[in-house]
Amino acid sequence: MVKKWSKNKLNSVLREDQAHMLGRLSDAEKAKFSGSTILVTGCAGFLGFGFLEFLVRQSQALGIESVIGLDTFLFGKPDWLSALESEFPNVLRSHKFDVSKDDVASVPGANKANLIIHGASIASPIFYRQYPIVTLDANIWGLRRLLDFYSPRDIKGFLFFSSSEIYGDPVAEAIPTDEEYRGNVSCIGPRACYDESKRFGETMCYLFAGAYQTPITVARPFNNFGPGMRIDDGRVPADFAKAILEGRDIEILSSGSPTRTFCYVADALAGYLKCLTHGKFDYFNIGIEGPEISVRELADIYAQLGADLCGYTGKVIYAKSGDADYLTHNPNRRCPKIGKAREILGYDPTIEVKEGVAKFLRFLIEERGHQS
Fold it and tell me: Which residues of 137-167 are buried (b: 16+ CB within 10 A; e: fewer)?
C-alpha cells in the first residue's frame, strides 16, 4: 500500500469496486446486514482493508450500525485505517488486540456483534515464515477464543478464512480442484504453520457448528489480488506492481512455469460477504475458474499494462530469491472449481485477470498522484 492516504478523496477504483460488490449481493443478503454490528479480526490486512472500506462506506445503504476492527498491528497501524476512523467516527472503531491471547469481552461493543469475520492471520509466505507461531496462534487459538465467546450468543453469521493452501500441491487429476479434495499437504516444512493451522481451523468450525449450531461458514480463497495489498507483500501480484511503480525490471524468482487463476479482490469480497450471510455451516472455494496462467504470463500482462497506463519501460527478467525456502512446497498449479459456490451462494466472478491487473495498477497510480 501507499504510505499516505487521502482522506475524503476516495480512489475511483474503490468507488467502482464497491458498486460492483453491491451489485453482486442479493436483496436477501443485503437485508442480513441491517441492524448489525460487525466484528472484523485482521482488520489492518489486505482483505481487512477491503471489508472495512466497503462495510463502513456502505453502512448507511446496508443499515449497518457499527463495525469493530481488531488487529495486532504487527506491521503498524496503516494510515488508511486511521483516516477511515476519522471520517466515520460513529461507525468504525479499531483496537490493538491479539485474538489468540486477549479477552474478547474486553472489546467495547464486542458482545453486541452478530456478524463475525475472522481474518486474522498472516497470509503471505514471506511473512508467515518469519512469524510461524504467530500465524498458527491466530488460526487455532484465536479461532477457538472467538468460537467460545460467540457460540452461546445469537449471531447471524461467522466467516472463517481458510485457504486454498489446504489442498497443498494437488495431483493432476484433481485440477481444477473441488471442495471434496482432501489435500496433499506436508505437516513439516516452511508452509506448514499456515497450511496445517487452516486445516485444523476448519475441523474446529465443523465441530462447533455441530455442537452449538454456530452459523459458521468457511471460505477457501484462491489467489486474490488488488487494492489493499501492501506492495511489499512478497506475493507476485504485489512484487510485479512494485517493480512498475519503481520503474524497475519485473523479476521472476522461479522458472515462471507455475500456474494460477488470479481473482480480483472485488469479486472475491463479494463471495466472502455471501459466505458471511449464508448463516449455516458449509465450506466454499472462492476464486475464479479461469484463465489459468503461468507466472511468466502474469508478468507479461503487468509489463504491457504498465506501459499502457504509466509509460513503464522495464523488462521481465529471471532472478533467484535470497530466501532458501522461497519455493519449498510451492504448489505447481492452483485452479478452483466454484460450482458449489455458484449454485448455493449465487457467486459468479466476472473480472478476469487483465481487467483486474489494470484496476490494481490504476488504483496504485492514482494513490501515488494523491501524495504529490
Answer: bbbbebbebbbebbbeeebbbbbbbbbbbbb
Alpha-carbon distances, residue 213 vs 38, 161, 204 (angstroms): 19, 19, 13
Cell of 5: 492516504
> Which amino acid type is present at position 202?
E
Calpha distance 64→57 (Å, rounded): 10
User: Which cell numbers hold the place of 62?
Assistant: 446496508
Helix H, strand E, coil C: the string for 55-71 is HHHCHHHHCCCEEEEEE
**Average pLDDT for consecutive 10-residue bins of the chain (372 residues)?**
51 98 98 98 97 98 98 95 98 98 97 97 82 93 98 97 95 96 91 94 98 98 96 92 97 92 98 98 98 97 98 95 67 94 98 98 91 55
Do 139 and 201 meet the contact criterion of CB atoms below 8 Å apart? yes
Paired with 38 in beta bridges are: 67, 115
Residues listed for the chain: 372
User: Cβ distance 143 to 204 under 8 Å?
Assistant: yes
Q: What's the predicted TM-score (pTM) here?
A: 0.95
Amino acid (one-letter) located at 258 = P
Q: Tell me, rounded to whole angstroms, the distance of Cα 101 from its chain centroid.
A: 23
* Distance, CA of 250 to CA of 162 (rounded, Å): 30
Q: What is the DSSP string of 16-43?
A: HHHHHHHHHS-HHHHHTTTT-EEEEEST
Could you tell me which residues are beta bridge partners of residue 159?
117, 217
Name the region of 323 (left: φ>0; alpha: ψ -120 to 50; beta: rest): beta
What whole-number distance in Å separates Cα of residue 198 and Cα of residue 234? 20
What ranges in 113-191 are assigned the alpha helix state H?
A: 125-128, 132-137, 143-150
Our measurement of the distance from residue 292's CA atom to the centroid of its chain's CA atoms, rounded to an integer in Å, reads 19
Q: How far apart are CA 300 and CA 288, in angstroms?
A: 20
Question: Quick check: 158 and 215 in contact, CB under 8 A?
Answer: yes
Residue in the structure block whose three cell numbers are 453491491: 22
Measure the CA–CA gap between 250 and 358, rounded to whole angstroms. 16
Taking the C-alpha atoms of residue 229 and residue 367, their distance in angstroms, rounded to an integer, is 13
Cα atoms in the Cβ-side hemisphere of radius 13 Å centred on 90 = 4
DSSP 191: T
Half-sphere exposure of 172 (CA within 13 A, CB side): 0
**DSSP letter assigned to residue 138:** I
